[in-house]
């Protein structure tokens, strides 16, 4: 199984960065790769339980992903399972994401761990998507 780890520094407090990775209204402002929007969702990583999002591109292609929030430890980390749905809305292989916030100099560091991604190609696709999403998050602090 392939794993992915990305780290980014943000010019904000750990508490504020945690809000950006857990609060549904804030998540919607950066969730999904650039060029995507989220017309349907139950994004709330501030509580345990189910979540889902449907991302759509400009051509109208839709991509659904869902899972369970497995832990919430404010202001340190959230964890959730992750599984893509196919065209018949059947959920595929499950992986796990942990978003960890820690103090860093004058700001905060976000560590994204996405584990059990299957093969290297799947991990590379997720790295591309998460990198694009994190650029959207970084833009919230500029």
Automatic annotation (TrEMBL):
Domain Activator of Hsp90 ATPase homologue 1/2-like C-terminal: 12-140
Pfam families listed in its UniProt record: AHSA1
InterPro entries: ASHA1/2-like_C (IPR013538), START-like_dom_sf (IPR023393)
SUPFAM superfamilies: Bet v1-like (SSF55961)
CDD domains tied to this protein: SRPBCC_CalC_Aha1-like
Superkingdom, taxonomy of origin: Bacteria
Gene3D superfamilies xref list: 3.30.530.20
Family assignment from sequence similarity: Belongs to the AHA1 family.
Protein name: Activator of Hsp90 ATPase homologue 1/2-like C-terminal domain-containing protein
Native source species: Ruegeria profundi
